[in-house]
Every structure is written in structure tokens, then in C-alpha cells.
Amino acid sequence: MMPTPVELLTIGYELLIGKVVNTNAAWLAAEFTKRGYSVTRITCIGDNEDEIASETKRAIERGAQIIVTTGGLGPTFDDITARSVSKGLSLDCVINEEALKMIEQKYSSLNLPITPERKKMAELPRGSKVLRNPVGTAPGFAVKKGDFLVVGFPGVPQELKEMFKLYADELFPPKGEMVEFFVKARGVPESSAAPVVERLVKANPFLYIKSHPQSSEGSSYIEFHVYSVTSDPRIKSACERVAKELASELIKMGAVIV
Amino acid sequence: MMPTPVELLTIGYELLIGKVVNTNAAWLAAEFTKRGYSVTRITCIGDNEDEIASETKRAIERGAQIIVTTGGLGPTFDDITARSVSKGLSLDCVINEEALKMIEQKYSSLNLPITPERKKMAELPRGSKVLRNPVGTAPGFAVKKGDFLVVGFPGVPQELKEMFKLYADELFPPKGEMVEFFVKARGVPESSAAPVVERLVKANPFLYIKSHPQSSEGSSYIEFHVYSVTSDPRIKSACERVAKELASELIKMGAVIV
């Protein structure tokens, strides 16, 4: 069974000018991988309605089953993710009464009135399930169009993480787990190990091996990462066996396993 | 004058499983922004020939003038960036004699022979300028198709950075600079500041203001980032003036500028 393909759409100019490192994408990618999903693409674009709408559409065309957006849910004029996703899905973007209540309660507790900017955060794709934000103010949303699920989270990392934890089991039920084994070797250049890695991956198409040379080819430390995403315990054993075989082949080449 | 649009195509499964945070993208985005270019999109995909080829093509269709790839230049079987970019540009991927010489010299200095895996690193899009790698082994490439420039850098951050520094002035000559001013305010929620930010951005379309609330809306610390990419000193003055106006508006709302 192929893992469910997920795309991440991280939205915000602060990422495009390099002011912010996209740790949200790496965090989400690791979480989805652990749950047995396969992140197939991470796209970062600015707060641009047409681009967000067209990437949402294109994710469907590419065969993704889930797209997760981060960013653009707040009160400022350039927070336009909900409206843009609605456009991409050909859904109306409407005031969601439950979201509005959450926002009203929040501001009422701060003794602040509901302004148009605050009300805007309750405008969500028609049919959305509202996602409560236990840290900040802007609610998230989850909306289906046919079998395609779009989930919108805020861009503030702490808000994203807390909301993901609240809703992950419901929205992204675990489909397996990531099994992984590491082989750390000194004394063999990556290019010498390459044919062995290729043979092992081709003979075991259910797993993947990446070599991560820690500095240049001339020096000698490489971390090999043998992994698979699966719910089958036999695959876990097979990964372990392949990692051992890799280590023994590297030793034959003169490597020291560390 | 609109800044030259650049897309970053960061390649590698290690990014898609969240094993690696994409610091390369943020670093490149900041470097291009400082040089007066505009990064319009950052895409992260796996080592997949068709996807790399089609994203290269699509970047051209979207109006990018430069695409920079990172990753996939090494000796392992899944290092296929040069071949995939060639496909996207409808160019042959051929042994580049200059690249081959660099690689031969490197391995000869390590007393290692040229294997097919090592030779593969010299296969580059036809017509490429070879980029020397002072840290590692895999050379980079720069190739034009019409006015569209594709530059391929390695994914190892230290190699990427050294090679960028070596070739940036030639490949990406400075077209201006990023001018930026920060306003840090306590005591005003982001949603209260939003209408002022919107008015200032609409009145000064040559600049951008992003508000970065440092925690939840209920608390009160926001960093406002007023910036533009320009070679015009009048725009720098205008950004400074707008930052001052923003600060004075926030003070009127009860904020403390810190």
C-alpha cells in the first residue's frame, strides 16, 4: 500500500525573503512521516490569492489527498489563506458562526470590540470544520472537497504545533510508522559506497537509503539512513537486515562503523 | 522596476521526511533579497526526474528568470538533478570535459580511480558553465535556455555557501539592496494595528510591512518589519519615514515602542 500523499503549502513573504527559516515545514513533515503519510512536496509562496488558489488546485491534480497550509489566517490585510483556498476549491468563503464565537469570546475577555479585521478571521471556506486555537486567536479550518482534504493552520510555530496535536488523530489517523536505522561509517567516500546503496535499494524497493556525507568527499564520515514508512513488522525486520548488510559491505571496503 | 524573479528548487527526500530543516532555502532567499532579487517561490521535491523536469519548465511558465536548484549533484543513484534539469530544458545531458577534469584531479589526489558513479558527476546540461566546488567534489553548473538561467548547487550547506560566494557576483550581479526598518511595539494587539498597516502599505506601494506577533494576540509584543528592495535612495528615506509614522500611530493607540 502506498502511503497517503500530503503536500505542505507554507505561506508568507517572510519565508521568501529569508527572514524566517521554514521550521514549520520540517516539523510537519516529520509528524506526517511518523504517522505513516508521505509528504510529496513542500511549496512556499507569498500571500498571493491567485498563487494560493492555483497551488491548491494543482495539488489535487498531482494526486495529493491532503494539503496542509500554514500562515495567513491572522487579522492583517495580507492574511488571505482562507479566501484563497476557497477560491482554489470553488467554495464560497463565508462567516463561520462557530469561529466567530471563538473570536468574540477571545476579544471580549481582553475587553476589545470586534473590528472588521477581527471578524475577517472567522471567514472560512463553506463547510469547514473549525479548529480551535488554544494559543492564539485565529482559528484554523479543515474542509473537504470530494476526497481531498485541506487543513489550514496558523504560521506561528507554537500555535501550529498545539493545534496539530489537538486534531492530528482525528484528521490524520496513523497509517503506520516510520522505521529507521542508521549506519555511521568512517573511511569510505560516498562515491565508493554508492553502488552498494543502489543495489540494496533496488533489491528492497519497500525501503529507502540516503547517504549524508557530513563534510566533503575527501574526508570520511557518512551517516546512512535506512528507512521505510509502514505498518508491517516484516518490513521493520527487513530494514534492520539491510542496515546490517550495508554495514558489513562497508566494513569489507575498509570502513569503520562508529 | 520590478526585481528579477527567482525560484528556489530544493531537492531531496531528507527534506520531505523532516530529517533536515531547509536552511539552504532561507540562506539563499536572504542572499538574493540582499542583492535586489525577488524570490517568488521555494519548492521542495524528492529526487524524481519527472518532477524536477516539470518544475523547471513551470518556473519558466510562471515568469521566473532564474531557478536555483540545491541537491542531487553527488555520486549516488538518486542524485539526478543535472539529468532532470536537462530534460526540463530539452537539452542533452553530456559529459562536461572541464567538470570531468576537476573530478579526476580530486580523486587522483585521494588515490582513488574514476568509477561510473564518480564520472556521473561530470554529466551536465549541454552548454553548462562548470562551477568549481572548493569544499566537496561534485561541481555545480549554470546553464541558459534563452534568457532563463538555471544554476545547480550541491545540497551540503557548506558547499552551497562557498560556491555561491565564488560565483554570485558573476551570475547574480547586485540589482539593488534590501532596505529595512523595524518597529517593536508592546501593548497593541496585531488586529488593532492591522488597519494602520494596511493604509500605510496601500499609500506606499513600493514597500512592504509585515507584523510578526511574538506570541499570542492576548499578549502584546509585535515586531513590525518595514522593507523594500531597491537601488533608489529616495525609497530608503521613504521606508524610514513610514516606519516613523507607524511608530507614532502605534503610540497614539497606547503602544510602547521598545
From TrEMBL, chains A, B:
<feature type="domain" description="MoaB/Mog">
    <location>
        <begin position="7"/>
        <end position="174"/>
    </location>
</feature>
<dbReference type="InterPro" id="IPR036425">
    <property type="entry name" value="MoaB/Mog-like_dom_sf"/>
</dbReference>
<dbReference type="InterPro" id="IPR050101">
    <property type="entry name" value="CinA"/>
</dbReference>
<dbReference type="InterPro" id="IPR001453">
    <property type="entry name" value="MoaB/Mog_dom"/>
</dbReference>
<protein>
    <recommendedName>
        <fullName>MoaB/Mog domain-containing protein</fullName>
    </recommendedName>
</protein>
<dbReference type="Pfam" id="PF00994">
    <property type="entry name" value="MoCF_biosynth"/>
</dbReference>
